[in-house]
Write a structure and sequence with these properties.
Length: 80
């Protein structure tokens, strides 16, 4: 994601990456980062990777895991 923000952010601010013989490899300054309009950046590739490569738990599964963890913590604290 940082590469996407760096590339698209620098391109939109008209900063150059330089060329092969004289590359500009610096990062984005705080002022440049604050000036990026994130609504105009294309996060499609990031979202596709996120959705394809991450297991996002469903609400019921997450609720059950949370209940179980709370139960474990309560059991630990009451045994002390």
């Amino acid at each position: 994601m940082t590469n996407m923000i760096s590339y698209q952010g620098l391109v939109r601010t008209f900063l150059s990456f330089g060329g092969a013989s004289s590359p500009n490899c610096r990062g984005i300054t705080m002022a440049e980062l604050q000036g990026i309009n994130f609504n105009r950046l294309d996060f499609a590739n990031f979202m596709e990777d996120l959705m394809n490569n991450q297991k996002i738990p469903d609400n019921a599964e997450l609720t059950e895991k949370t209940k179980q963890r709370i139960k474990e913590l309560l059991t630990q604290s009451s045994s002390k």
